[in-house]
Structure to design on (275 residues):
């Protein structure tokens, strides 16, 4: 979970610490919590201490920046996949203070800061109106309720790039009332207990992005797919169309088999870097 990330929309991941507390429905099946438990670490909950990373780990972005500068190709860094940078927990302030200069010292990296707590951003970053041009700030909007709550707070910041992660997409989302969104990532939920996503929710988001010239990235269908992969038994067909008022019948095929094709193609669009 560092260089050469397996996450489709980033090159690297960097975690100043591990651990978080759940704040909304998107957190119910948190992959980061599950991953930490694989290593025997119970790091989730308001009263639980977070796990810091080593000094050697903190030096990795400096190496990535040098590599990117030599190649002339910018690299995206997702920070943080195992935590929320803007969690209001006193012990985290020292680590946040260490992160901001690191971002400024790595201008060949685009830092993707994704949070479910955009209301805390402006009082925690040191930049006020003069944000570094290599910071992309994003928030999660799993349904319209959280889009309405979080997107205005996201857009109130002076980050050069604003993005929305509609993953896991748990309901229809429209962002037509706002301007200033540069990128939308959409995806279904995977793993045990995954909740289904109506394909029409995905298409609606994509169509809004095309209409408004916003970059659209379709990450995955997740566990539930509107398509049956070849050689899959028909018993995996799950009739959700009528029970959940979905626009299509979905199939429980798993993340890998479901893939990331939407209407015949992949959608790997990215916003233009500000640097």
């Amino acid at each position: 979970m560092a260089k050469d990330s397996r996450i489709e929309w980033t090159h690297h991941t960097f975690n100043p610490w591990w651990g978080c507390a759940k704040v909304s429905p998107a957190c119910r099946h948190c992959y980061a919590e599950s991953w930490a438990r694989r290593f025997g670490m119970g790091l989730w909950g308001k009263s639980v201490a977070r796990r810091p990373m080593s000094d050697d780990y903190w030096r990795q972005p400096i190496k990535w920046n040098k590599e990117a500068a030599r190649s002339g190709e910018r690299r995206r860094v997702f920070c943080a996949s195992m935590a929320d940078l803007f969690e209001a927990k006193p012990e985290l302030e020292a680590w946040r203070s260490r992160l901001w200069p690191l971002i400024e010292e790595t201008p060949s990296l685009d830092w993707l800061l994704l949070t479910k707590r955009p209301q805390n951003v402006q009082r925690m970053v040191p930049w006020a109106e003069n944000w570094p041009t290599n910071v992309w700030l994003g928030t999660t909007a799993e349904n319209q309720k959280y889009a309405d709550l979080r997107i205005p707070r996201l857009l109130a910041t002076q980050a050069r790039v604003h993005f929305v992660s509609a993953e896991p997409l748990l309901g229809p989302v429209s962002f037509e009332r706002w301007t200033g969104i540069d990128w939308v990532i959409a995806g279904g939920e995977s793993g045990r207990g995954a909740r289904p996503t109506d394909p029409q929710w995905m298409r609606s988001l994509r169509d809004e992005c095309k209409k408004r010239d916003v970059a659209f990235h379709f990450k995955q269908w997740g566990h539930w797919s509107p398509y049956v992969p070849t050689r899959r038994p028909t018993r995996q067909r799950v009739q959700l169309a009528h029970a959940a008022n979905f626009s299509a019948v979905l199939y429980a095929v798993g993340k890998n088999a479901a893939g990331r094709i939407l209407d015949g193609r992949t959608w790997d669009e990215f916003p233009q870097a500000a640097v």
Observations:
- The mean pLDDT is 92.
- The chain has eight helices and twelve strands.
